[in-house]
Amino acid sequence: MQSVTCLVKRESNQYVSLCVELDVASCGKTKREAIEGLKNAIEAYIEYMSSEMRDKEIYRPVPLHELRNFLFSVKNEPIIC
After folding, report:
1. Sheet of 24-28: strands edge to edge?
2. How far apart are CA 50 and CA 16, in angstroms?
3. Residue 78 has pLDDT above 90, yes or no
């Protein structure tokens, strides 16, 4: 499998994770849960897109304005993993 970029940040009482290359996100009560949820979401997304014969559409990076919002909407520093 190809490597992807995963960003994780704390938001209120949970952690939010985002895959930059695929525009897939998840969350969890802990950083580990957020990362595991993101791995599962990425796997489900890729399986779904492949089953629909949409392999060429799998790569869809997060729009820049949404990435900025993810990174800077809360004053907490993002955790890069």
Report:
1. 24-28, 14-19, 6-11, 79-80
2. 26
3. no
